[in-house]
Structure formats: C-alpha cells, structure tokens
Write a structure and sequence with these properties.
alpha/beta, ten-stranded mixed beta sheet, single chain, about 15% strand
Length: about 475
C-alpha cells in the first residue's frame, strides 16, 4: 500500500471507519448479525472506494491494477512465454466455434494470435512471509525449485479475476501459492489480454493456447506434457467467466466432431488432442455479463461490488486512451449483441450444452453474483454433472482473498483446494450443495437442482434479453440524460 494511497484514500476515511466500528460494536448495523468487525471495515472501505461519484478512467484503473507487488513470501514464481504458434488452426477453430454458437446478428472482433505470458506459481516450503525472491536465478532453475516442493501431479490452469479489464498473474500470486500448498501441486497463471483494448474473444484465445501449452509444450519449455486428467481450470470472478467459457468451448468442439473422437488442433507442428480437463473450480464466478439476476440488487448490502447504476446503464468513466473504444460499443468486454453468447456469459448455455462435462465446484458468498451461479449450477446438475455448491451466508464477493485469515476464508480456501486435488487425482465427486452459516460456519444441505427456484429457465433468458435491449436503447459508451429519462 503506497503512501500516496494512504494519504488520499485511507486517512480521509478514518472518521467514517471509526463510526462504523462503534455502530457495529453496538449491533446497530444491518450486517452486524453476520459480519465481524474486520469484515465490516474491509467491505465498507472497499465499497466506498468503488462508489465514487467520479470514478477513475479505465486507463488509470488498469494501470493501477497491473503494478507488480513483487515476489515475497512463501511462493515460487517462474515466468514463461508461450511462443506464437506456427499455425493459425487454434484461431480458426476458436472462431468457427464462436460462429457456430452465436445468434445471427451477433458481432465480435477477430483477435490476433500473440505469444501468451504466464507464471508458474507454487508453494515455497522453506520460506516465511518476508522471504525474498531469488532474483539471481534463471527462470528455468526457479521452475525446478518449485517442482522440488510439489508433492502431487495436480496442475491448475489459473485465470485471474478483475472484471476482464484489470489485474494479472502478479496480483494473484498469493492465491496460486496457497492453492499450491493445499493441493501439493502447481499453478500456471495466465496473463490473458485485457479488455477494452482486446475484446472478446482475445482472452479466451489466450487461455486456450495456455491449455494447449500444458498438453503439448513447445520446444524448450520447462515442463513435460501434462495429462488433461491432472489439469483443473480455476479462477475467481472474471477468471470464473473464462474457466467456464473455456470448458464450454471444449465441450462444443467435442459435440461438433461428428467422428466421435477427441477433437484435435494443429499446434506447433503437432495434431494435439483437446480432451476435457479433470475439473473446473471457481470462486465467485461471474457467469452473467448482462448482470440481470435478482441478487445483483438484492444482495448488494452484503457486497462491496456496486450494483448496476439505477437509471444509468453505462458507468460514467472519464474518456481515456482505452475507453470509449473506436468504433464505440456498449460494453467494456464485447459488443452488446454478443452478451448472450455462451462463451461470453456461460449462464446462457443450456443444460444440454454441459453434458459430458468434468466435475465442477462453485464457491459463492451472499453476493451480487450469487443468483447467476445458482442458475448455472442447477443446469449442470440437471445435466448429470458431478458438482459441489457451497454458499457462505453473508459473505461478499471473493471474500477469501479480501478478508484473509478469517475462519470463513480459511474454510473456503480449503474447500476450493481440496476439490481441485480430488478432481485432478480422478477421485469420485459426489454432487452436494451446502449453505455455510455466518459466524458458526455450520453447514446446511441444499438441493442443487432447485437453486433459485423462483425463476425458471425461460424467465432467466427473458431477464437477460431485457437487459441487452436496455443497453442497446441507451447507446454505446454514453451518459445521455434524455435517454436515461426515457428508460
């Protein structure tokens, strides 16, 4: 935390935080029944940062989120670059799949193929919280040292959160290190391209290339080919978006392969089979980019993420080099016409689209994204997919990363890592759902087939389409008072 941030953001909020602490101690806050003091102060502080009347520009937000915090503590990090594939087959197959699944009038930008940066990250056994990175060692030796501390074949393909416009593997090193500790394995954390400069499907292409790289490493790579059964896709928030999108992309390629064989992609001179991974494990996954579910507003009191502005359909980001785009569009990640695409909003995929999937784990709080997770979870359950659903009462978005060291955070992290380890080892996953009570952490069983029973699939689609229509009526990247009045 920089001195500038403390001076500009923390110190002016001290009176506000003191009042909060007093009100919480006397039980005068609505959240006091489910939150401890630490959670109250952190969530309300972050919420106040995100709810500014005049937000920072996308360029400023992105630049701030990409500041490298350094490599310190119980982690090994080895940086790699997946070289540019010698063929275009990976792009052609991606575009063919996107086209096969899109609605007639949906449009999107065709991305270029680029080298993909990533970080191997694992738990460092001989370190403490202040241990510094070995800057004098080459990346290959750092990888070898990481592998000496691994105790299993678990390999996590990690996709970081950040609303698809912020953050990178550097911001999520502690997460990957902790997953490495719990699973005994390693993480390959992908530095996928960020919107709005690189809209859909650029990030998905990068993640697909990273998966192929694990399966069939290029000449000079540090690792040997990894069996798909040992690989688990994992991610938080927008990383959950990409985890499910990548899974759905692979499932669609399997469906479209009429021979019944595992599809292959020409990658660096080889026909590489593209099998389904061992599992997918997400934390607070963002799977409805229309943000149309009831919890978007209904759970706002338990979250720091702001709900979509009432009366305003596009946040008033100051103009900058990244936004608005040229030509302008309505959404930071993609053209609004493609928001209902299953590879953009995985919640849009039908139950039948998930048939043949690997086991899946969902972790959510009582957050704004909870309902979209429920819809996706029940669709996979009805498709017969082995899965685990765990929702933590009263907890905000990605609380285990935000409120480190709390009992609920530790419990959630352990559940996350344990599922990854079991899925990657091929252990049997029994479908189950649970609601974890606030403070006591007692678990209550829930029926995953009837999650969000007040909305059927037809009503879910109607809500998504209504949101898209509102965005289309509002217009691209504008804040026009006349249009707001009409809506």
């Amino acid at each position: 935390m920089s001195a500038k941030f403390v001076f500009n953001e923390v110190i002016p909020r001290i009176p506000f935080l003191v009042r909060l602490a007093i009100a919480h101690s006397f039980g005068r806050l609505e959240t006091s029944a489910k939150w401890d003091l630490k959670t109250t102060l952190i969530v309300r502080f972050v919420r106040s940062l995100l709810a500014k009347d005049q937000p920072s520009s996308i360029s400023v937000l992105q630049t701030f989120s990409l500041k490298d915090p350094g490599i310190v503590g119980q982690m090994w990090v080895s940086k790699v670059i997946v070289p540019l594939p010698s063929e275009h087959d990976v792009l052609d197959r991606l575009l063919g799949t996107v086209d096969a699944m899109k609605e007639r009038d949906a449009i999107y930008d065709i991305p270029s193929i680029e080298p993909v940066e990533a970080e191997w990250t694992g738990f460092r056994k001989d370190a403490n919280e202040k241990t510094k990175h070995m800057t004098d060692l080459p990346e290959s030796e750092l990888y070898d040292k990481m592998m000496q501390d691994t105790t299993s074949d678990v390999t996590v393909l990690y996709m970081h959160g950040g609303a698809l416009i912020m953050m990178d593997p550097a911001s999520h090193r502690p997460v990957c290190s902790r997953l490495g500790k719990i699973t005994g394995g390693r993480c390959l954390s992908v530095r996928y391209r960020l919107a709005p400069k690189f809209p859909f499907p650029a990030a998905l292409l990068d993640c697909l290339i990273a998966y192929l790289y694990l399966l069939s490493p290029s000449l000079g790579s540090y690792h040997k080919p990894v069996p798909a059964s040992n690989i688990v896709f994992a991610g938080d928030s927008a990383g959950g978006t990409l985890s499910f999108a990548l899974l759905q992309l692979i499932l669609q390629m399997h469906r479209s392969n009429t021979s019944g064989q595992t599809p292959t992609i020409r990658f660096n001179g080889k026909d590489v089979p593209l099998p389904i991974p061992g599992g997918v494990a997400t934390f607070s996954a963002w799977v409805d980019l229309t943000r149309s579910m009831p919890s978007t507003l209904g759970n706002a009191r338990w979250d720091y993420l702001p709900p979509p502005s009432q009366g305003t359909l596009t946040t008033k980001f100051p103009a900058c080099a990244l936004w608005p785009t040229k030509p302008t569009r309505e959404d930071l990640y993609c053209d609004v016409s493609v928001l209902l695409h299953p590879l953009v909003s995985p919640m849009a995929a039908k139950s039948s689209d998930w048939e043949g999937s690997c086991p899946v784990s969902f972790l959510y709080g009582e957050e704004v994204f909870a309902d979209e997770g429920k819809v996706l979870c029940r669709r996979l359950a009805r498709a017969g997919i082995p899965l685990q659903w765990d929702q933590y009462d009263g907890m905000p978005h990605c609380w285990a990363m935000m409120i480190r060291g709390s009992e609920s955070s530790n419990k959630a992290f352990k559940a996350w890592g344990d599922f990854i380890a079991r899925a990657a080892k091929g252990e049997r996953i029994e479908t189950k759902g649970s609601l974890v009570e606030a403070k006591t952490l007692n678990e209550k069983s829930v029926d995953v087939n009837s999650l969000l029973g007040e909305l059927n699939d037809v009503q879910v689609e109607e809500r998504m389409r209504a949101d898209v229509k509102r965005k289309l009526a509002y217009g691209p990247a504008r804040n026009d008072e006349k249009i707001q009045a009409k809506l």
